[in-house]
Amino acid sequence: MTEAVLYDAAGPRGRRRILIGSVAGLLLLAVVIGAAVARLAANGGLEAELWRVLTRGDVQRLLARALVATLRAAVVAMVLSMAVGAVLAVGRLSRRRWLARPVGAWVELFRGLPLLLLIFFLFLALPTVGVTISTFWTLVAGLTLYNSAVIGEIFRAGILSLPKGQTEAAYAIGLRRGQALRMILLPQAVRLMLPALVSQAVTLLKDTSLGFVIGYSELLRNGRTAVEFLGGKYSIPIYTAIAVVYIAVNASLSFTARWLDRRTRRQLGRTVQPSVADEAA
Amino acid sequence: MDAILDNLDAYRQGFVTTLALTVVSTVLALAIGTLLAAMRVSPVPILRAAGATYVEVVRNTPLTVVFFFAVFVLPQLDIRLPFFQFAVIAVTVYHAAFFCEAVRSGVNSVGVGQAEAARSIGLTFTQSLRLVVLPQAFRTVIPPLINVVIALTKNTSIAAAFGVVELTAVGIRLANANGDAVIAILVGIALCYLALTLPSGWLAGQVERRVAIAR
Q1: What CA–CA distance (Å, rounded) separates A18 from B94?
Q2: CB–CB contacts below 8 A, A to B
Q3: Are A232 and B77 in contact (CB under 8 A)?
Q4: Where is mean pLDDT largest: A182-186, B24-28, B109-113?
Q5: What is the rounded distance in angstroms from the CA atom of residue A145 to the CA atom of residue A208?
């Protein structure tokens, strides 16, 4: 439904009311922003000296290194999650119950747990059984455990959304189930779920920020280090810069996801929709 | 096993804190999210733009960064609150955007004919939204809303890194204190979370099925 159905094209009185609404809204917005800015200024948050810290070479290098570390963890975890997710999806779709049931339970289990708990579990429990891995691999393993379960469900939704005739046709020409999945179903499903996969990549990228709690030098950890070194009042410029970096990277990914979604929907008439809840977690 | 039984009290406290954080933040975020959704479908351009900007900014920011702003930046502005309230602010600000998107997709799922019919019998924008579209939208959005609440429940764990002693923080403390029972302790914490998330997920599935038949 397009929202425009909810109201008519405004006449002169309606236009006046919309104008009044706009002005009132604008005023309200101005008051809120003004109050925030006044508060910021009263506490010295707007002084040029404070913001000039972002032009310092060492701060820039620290944050640039951190961005690379963030992206590296995200890319490795995304690739692994897609590989494991594909295996989980095929396992859960299997007609062998002894395989489908446990895989289903595995997926529900890891989707139902907080990612931070998974990361802490790996971080604290692995050393007690004599396995030591770097913070990078701890973070990547945690991200993969969680996201492979989510991506597995996206794959499964993609395969299930294909018309039944595709599977039947594959069987009719003598393909086995595995072959049908690999050669007929997956290639078509990938197109349908590409937008959902890209928006899951946004979630995964956001979640790499949890690396900060186990001391992996990603954006937040290095930002915190910088603030601890420079002093608390620099938290305003440094964290704002970090937020801007995250928003810039993620917004361009989100934009790509929406563009892909529109294009695929134009060509195929449908896509696998990412769930709002998966984007939140 | 003994490590869990000896610390049942800590578990209970953590569970209650997680539950309190979840309930308070859900109520606030749902209210703000519904308001944002109404702004995003309203005829006033400035409200639409403000709502869209909020959602676009927040959903591309990690919750951890929102926590950083609440816990480290607000005190710089002389806003000092207990950690629990900072956590409520961060969780609310973040999830309001997702509640908004869930409600909005619900509004969009109501057939065009419904809104057209409401308009053609002379209902105004507010009336058609309140009497016709929203009552139907709320039914379809209940499953996605429950799923956002589940995500919120899991996300409250991030408060552990910012001084709130909820389930995850209890787990970390106990694990550090009982080096010989780390796995048992953390499995216990995981079970507490599953006790919250799995029934909700089951409920969402049931509601989804009921609504699907009704349509």
Answers
A1: 29
A2: 204
A3: no
A4: B24-28
A5: 13
Within an 8 Å CB–CB cutoff, is residue A32 touching chain B?
no
Whether chain A has a CB inside 8 Å of the CB on B59: the answer is yes
**Mind telling me how many Å the CA of B48 is from chain A's nearest CA?**
10
Residue B40 has pLDDT above 80, yes or no: yes
Pick from A12-21, A83-92, A149-158, A247-256: least confident: A12-21
Contact flag B105-A276 (C-beta cutoff 8 Å): yes
In CATH, what number is assigned to the domain containing residue A165?
Answer: 1.10.3720.10
3-state secondary structure A93-106: HCCCHHHHHHHHHH
CA distance A184 to A162: 10
User: Is pLDDT of B215 > 70?
Assistant: no
Q: What does the DSSP assignment read for A140-196?
A: HHHHHHHHHHHHHHHHHHHHHTS-HHHHHHHHHTT--HHHIIIIIIHHHHHHHHHHH
Q: Within the 210-239 window of chain A, which residues sit less than 8 Å (CB to CB) from chain B?
A: 210, 212-213, 220, 223-224, 227, 232-233, 235-236, 239
- Is the pLDDT score of B23 beyond 90? yes
Class of domain B2-214: mainly alpha
Report the alpha-carbon distance of residue A177 to residue B85 in Å, rounded: 54
The predicted model gives A83-107 an average pLDDT of: 92
Domain range holding A95?
A: 55-280
Residue A268 lies in a domain: yes
Q: Are the C-beta atoms of residues B37 and B100 closer than 8 Å to each other?
A: yes
Number of Cα atoms under 13 Å in the Cβ half of residue A196 = 26
Positive or negative, the Cα torsion across B154, B155, B160, B165? negative
Domain coordinates in residue numbering, chain B: 2-214
A67 touching chain B per CB within 8 A: no
Q: Do the domain assignments include residue A44?
A: no
Rounded to two decimals, the pTM is 0.89
- Positive/negative CA dihedral, B96, B102, B106, B109: positive
Counted domains in chain A: 1
DSSP for A42-98?
Answer: HTTTT-HHHHGGGG-HHHHHHHHHHHHHHHHHHHHHHHHHHHHHHHHHHHHH-S-HH
ipTM above 0.90, yes or no: no
The 10 Å Cβ neighbour count of residue B114 is 16
Contacts of B76 in chain A (CB under 8 A): 43, 45, 232-233, 235-236
Residue A49 is assigned to a structural domain of this protein: no
Rounded CA separation B146/A112 (Å): 13
Supply the pLDDT for residue B204.
83
**What was the pLDDT predicted at A1?**
45
**Residue in B36, B73, B128 to test binding to A, most A beta-carbons within 10 Å:** B73
Residue A123 domain-assigned (yes or no): yes
